Amino acid sequence: SATGTLSGEGNLAGAKILKGRDWLASDSFTFILQGLHGAPMPEGSEKDISRVVVKGPEGTKSGTRVPFNFGDIAYDAPGTYTYQIYEPAEEAMTPGVSTSLAIYTVTVTVKDNHDGTLAATAKITRVHDDLGADIASDAAATNVARFTNTFDATSQEWAPIATKTLHDASG
């Protein structure tokens, strides 16, 4: 049976850009590659989810692209496979730093070379920008999933987590 591998570097790649301040040692951002409709996943994935945590070296200058990728994916059948890359808002915990609402679709086309190998190529399309707005189809093609977060010292959100217990003493 034919096999092929899609390199994560350059194909399933992204870049985190932090604007408004330099990176701190405590800064980290999580990104998800989600396989749709049973698409093969990189090694170490949990079902259809692969996570990567991005940490820039302390002092990385504001606006610098910090690259990441999800690793290689092995394919054993020709076809078209679809993935989404995004930053999960529920895991964004850096005070004063916005969460990117950008979403990218990666379409991988795997073709049989008829020599026992498969050839995989990827196309990345930006679906939503960092503010969550739709991207026009003529401006959506890109070669890397870029996520920009902005630090704003005057605006910080806080989501308290609480539990309320009611004891009914009325009898």
Briefly, what is this?
The protein is mostly beta strands and 171 residues long.
What structural keywords apply?
3-stranded mixed β-sheet; mainly beta; globular; 171 residues; 6-stranded antiparallel β-sheet
Please, could you describe this protein's structure?
This protein has 171 residues and is an all-beta fold. The chain contains no helices and eleven strands. It has strands at residues 4-6, 13-19, 29-36, 49-54, 65-69, 73-75, 79-86, 103-112, 118-128, 141-142, 145-150. It has a six-stranded antiparallel β-sheet, with no helix packed on it. A three-stranded mixed β-sheet has the order 5-2-11, with no helix packed on it. The model has no long low-confidence stretch (mean pLDDT 87).
Radius of gyration: 20 Å
In total, the number of strands is 11
Strand numbers in spatial order across the main sheet: 4-3-7-8-9-10
Distinct helical segment count: 0
Mean pLDDT: 87
Residue share in helix: under 10%
Structural class by secondary-structure content = mainly beta
Q: In terms of per-residue confidence, which ranges show pLDDT below 50 for 5 or more consecutive residues?
A: none
Shape annotation:
globular
Q: How much of the residues is beta strand, in percent? A: 35-45%
